[in-house]
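Quick one - first record:
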Amino acid sequence: MTASSSSTIAFCDFQHTWLSEGPLLNQLDIRSKPLDPRAPVDLVRLSQIGGHDITFSGDGKIFWLLGSSLNFADVRQLIKNCYAVSLESRDSGFCAQPHVRSLELNVTYETALSRQASETGGKIFPVTDATLVAMSDRLPRVLQYGTMIIRNGQI
């Protein structure tokens, strides 16, 4: 996954998120390994334990996900504070960490089955005179005039 703004690129490599404003922005094969010729000299690791799905906002922030956490930082702050430090501090992500903020995402989704179960209150609904197709390892079997019982949104 790679994201870029007008002069900055961010990408995932070895399950971490990385940021660069380097001269290799037009190169498709960018690496994060220090001293690799394909690694930008100004590369900064943003994540401590991993990340994915990177994007930039219009107001100069970078966002990435890690599990149920949304992480973000101001790109200008990162560039100002991280590009003047040692390669070791940039490669480990230590220089970026004071500038990274995190929000825990708590998303719930009600499935159709759980909605039906709550709406019916556990009542039983028979569907009679139905044509049913029973699936099996062998051939499907068609049952004419069958009865199907639905309870808590399940057949």
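second record:
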Amino acid sequence: MLSILLCYTYPNSVLVQKVSVETKELKKEIPYPSSSALIIRFLISASLPFNLFPAVKMMHMTFYWGKTVTILIDSWRTDSWLSYLLSLFALFLASAFYQFLEDRRIRFKLLSRSKSSSVEAPLLGAASVWPSAAKAIAAALFGVNSAVGYLLMLAVMSFNGGVFLAVVIGFALGYYAFRSGAEEDLIALDKSCGCS
């Protein structure tokens, strides 16, 4: 079965072409490589002293500097300096937005715990908020904030130095702009995620 998977995944390899002659009719039964084929491909390529599969692209495992980077999805690739700088600016804004959302979440949590009957929700204006609605809004803010934080973490995992610096500087300046007030010292709240 290993030879059949290798036959389908890599038909241009010399070793695999010999196997594909013997199993030509079985090749049609496997329309797409399965996840086990990808795992087997990795295990075999990692154990051989030469590159049996030259078409396999590996991601960077150390920090590198350069304008060519793939951020989050394959269609978000930067090839020019302009696209690279715009992507860094977008990541900077997203990390500052993360701090803004965290500030709104903390303020909403403090306001919903107050004893007054009318609570000013920071995102909704003045409204009378029932305890269950306040919990739902706080949970929604927490979910959006966590999603933004984890997407920024995945962007940093591209191991591009510029992406790393843009996200860290965005976190720092966002914290300075939105969360470094006097009320931050008076409260101790749970962290939404380990991203900041």
